[in-house]
Design goal:
By secondary structure, the protein is mainly β. The chain has a single domain, classed as Deoxyuridine triphosphatase (dUTPase) (Deoxyuridine 5'-Triphosphate Nucleotidohydrolase, Chain A, Distorted Sandwich), CATH 2.70.40. The chain is built from two helices and 15 strands. A hairpin with a 2-residue loop joins β1 (19-21) and β2.
Length: 162
């Protein structure tokens, strides 16, 4: 069963402000990095590298991130989330982003016990997507699961903004 937004909100730090929906919460981002389309990424045990490294991009003078067609970006959440032992977390792009054809983003399961300022990868299929730094980008949901005796304690536990 998917949890109510009000219940989910108790597992998300504030500030910044979140937006509570019937079955999840909307979240903003704190950082955006471009992952060059010629990047070589390596995942081997505890090794996690990108070459060239991700490049931090900043909002323009009007406060907009200008995400270019064909590029891949990593967006870090502005709020710390905690996934309780009896739930799994899922993060999705807000439907407004999908309806504008601007962002393709997938999620992975956020395991019971995960705590941190997670990230999502975004691919931009249209010419340009201008999204304001204060806009809500993603919707976070929690769903029931069998309570786990083993909680997440992996590489990304406790990740924070740089």
């Amino acid at each position: 069963m998917i949890w109510s937004g009000k219940r989910t909100a108790t597992f998300v730090s504030q500030p910044p402000e979140i937006k509570i929906n019937p079955n999840g919460i909307d979240l903003k981002v704190s950082e955006v990095y471009e992952i060059h389309n010629q990047t070589v990424s390596v995942l081997n045990g505890k090794v996690r590298t990108t070459n060239p490294e991700k490049v931090s991009i900043k909002p323009d003078a009007e406060g907009f991130y200008n995400l270019q067609q064909g590029n891949v970006y990593e967006a870090r959440l502005a709020n710390e989330v905690s996934v309780p032992a009896n739930a799994v977390g899922l993060m999705f792009p807000r439907s407004s982003l999908n309806r504008l054809g601007a962002v393709k983003s997938n999620t992975a399961i956020w395991e019971p016990g995960y705590k941190g300022f997670g990230t999502l990868t975004i691919f931009v299929p249209i010419k340009l997507f201008r999204i304001h730094k204060d806009e809500y980008w993603f919707q976070f949901t929690l769903q029931d699961c069998e309570k786990s005796d083993v909680l997440y304690d992996g590489h990304w536990q406790g990740e924070k903004p740089k």
